[in-house]
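for the recovery benchmark. tokens below, seq after
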């Protein structure tokens, strides 16, 4: 009896297993031997289209991924571009556009592209497990470090408030020195009078501490004040020197814009996105929520270049300058790394944000989703996805954040960087010449006033006659004196 029960149990389990396998096979047919109408859209390096002799061919990361899946699962396919060349968004009244619309409308069986998983798309199509995770990046033109120069860069180490404080302190110390000398002289009835102290000398002393001339005239109290002023100027001069050296030897390309919050906090640089993308749908959903992305969307709609119709047009606008294009991080990285032909004009700004995932899209309820998902996961686990990533995003190329265009400390500084300080030196020299001319003119004027100028000029002959007459007159006076002296002697 027990043997009969055991045989029946084994037979029932075997029958149930076969029934379950048959049912599963019927519900989820294999991908093997199937033909798929695959759509994609152009976005380097995922899918890049080229046309030769009216024949279109595709290459890129997703093309290699599709070929690897087809070889692994033994299916065939035909790869075409989506109806409008975009990934697709939902438009009120007209439905889905782009690659998503092609699958929803039954015109395609699979989407293999840089297709982002979103909640709206999950409602109408199925996704495999992600084959790549990414974040949104910002693309801009590398600032031209040799294009413009700050002629007044030597003032940069200190703010305006600091410069005004130094100037005020210098004048204050000069005035206090003069006041101390006057008080000492008055209260000691001139016993402690400082002959070399006046407002001019104290001003030069205060400035001299800064420039290195530390001779201090006057008494001990004035020297004490000068000593404290010297300590102050020592700190100021060394701080200025350190900051100036740092600002002149390192020119950083780090921009003040590193995040979406920085974008909405300025107006000098405009920014935009591509239409009919996942980012476009996301920003539309943020409208009215008073978030950072809502403010971005509001400002973008007012910018002439806020909504780009193609990636090529967006890159062209970025190269013109003062513009940031917001798009998927892998695309931004590819554009930057492969910009060597244009002398590495592009760079990624800051870090990525809004991290999301790419996956393969299929019709809603597709029986092939699970099998494709398993294959994608196996390719990630055995390193095939990493090999494709390395192939299309090489480690070499332009610097991602524009560092290859930075000016290091080893480079010489151009003369334009010293125009500001040279202009001050020139102004000082010019003022010195003017002061010298005024001094000479004043001296000559003073001498001219003191000098006795003869009423009339005389010729050489007239001068001789005048001298002779004066000599004769003196001789006559001598003879008259001698005659008078003789007469006086006779009378006595």
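predicted aa per position
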């Amino acid at each position: 009896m027990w043997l009969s029960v055991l045989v029946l149990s084994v037979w029932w389990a075997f029958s149930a297993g076969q029934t379950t396998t048959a049912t599963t096979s019927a519900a989820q047919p294999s991908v093997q031997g199937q033909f798929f109408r695959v759509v994609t859209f152009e976005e380097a390096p995922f899918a890049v289209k080229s046309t030769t002799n009216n024949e279109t061919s595709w290459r890129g990361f997703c093309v290699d991924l599709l070929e690897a899946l087809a070889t692994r699962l033994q299916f065939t396919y035909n790869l075409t571009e989506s109806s409008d060349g975009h990934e697709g968004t939902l438009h009120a009244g007209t439905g889905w556009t782009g690659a998503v619309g092609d699958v929803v409308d039954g015109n395609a069986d699979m989407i293999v592209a840089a297709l982002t998983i979103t909640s709206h798309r999950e409602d109408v199509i199925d996704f495999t497990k992600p084959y790549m995770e990414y974040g949104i990046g910002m693309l801009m033109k590398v600032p031209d470090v040799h294009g413009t120069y700050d002629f007044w860069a030597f003032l940069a180490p200190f703010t305006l408030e600091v410069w005004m404080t130094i100037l005020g302190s210098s004048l204050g110390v000069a005035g206090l020195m003069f006041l101390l000398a006057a008080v000492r002289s008055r209260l000691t009835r001139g016993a402690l009078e400082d002959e070399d102290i006046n407002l001019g000398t104290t001003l030069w002393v205060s400035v001299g501490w800064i420039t290195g001339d530390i001779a201090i005239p006057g008494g001990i109290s004035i020297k004490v004040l000068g000593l404290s002023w010297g300590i102050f100027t020592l700190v100021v001069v060394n701080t200025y020197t350190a900051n100036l050296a740092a600002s002149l030897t390192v020119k950083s390309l780090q921009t003040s814009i590193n995040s979406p919050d920085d974008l909405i906090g300025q107006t000098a640089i405009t920014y935009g996105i591509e239409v009919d993308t996942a980012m476009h749908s996301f920003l539309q959903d943020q409208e009215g929520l008073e978030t950072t992305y809502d403010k971005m969307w509001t400002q973008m709609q007012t910018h002439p270049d806020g909504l780009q119709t193609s990636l090529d047009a967006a890159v062209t606008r970025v190269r013109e300058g003062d513009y940031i294009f917001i798009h998927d991080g892998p695309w931004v990285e590819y554009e930057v790394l492969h910009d060597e032909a244009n002398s590495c004009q592009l760079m990624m700004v800051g870090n990525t944000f809004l991290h999301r995932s790419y996956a393969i899209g299929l019709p809603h309820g597709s029986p092939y989703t699970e099998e494709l998902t398993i294959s994608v996961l196996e390719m990630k686990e055995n390193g095939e996805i990493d090999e494709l990533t390395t192939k299309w995003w090489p480690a070499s190329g332009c610097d991602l954040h524009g560092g290859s265009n930075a000016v290091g400390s080893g480079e010489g500084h151009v003369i334009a960087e010293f125009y500001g300080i040279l202009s001050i030196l020139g102004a000082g020299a010019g003022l010195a010449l003017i002061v010298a001319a005024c001094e000479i003119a004043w001296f000559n004027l003073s001498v001219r006033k003191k000098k006795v100028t003869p009423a009339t000029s005389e010729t050489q002959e007239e001068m001789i006659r005048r001298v002779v007459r004066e000599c004769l007159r003196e001789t006559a006076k001598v003879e008259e004196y001698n005659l008078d002296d003789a007469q006086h002697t006779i009378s006595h």
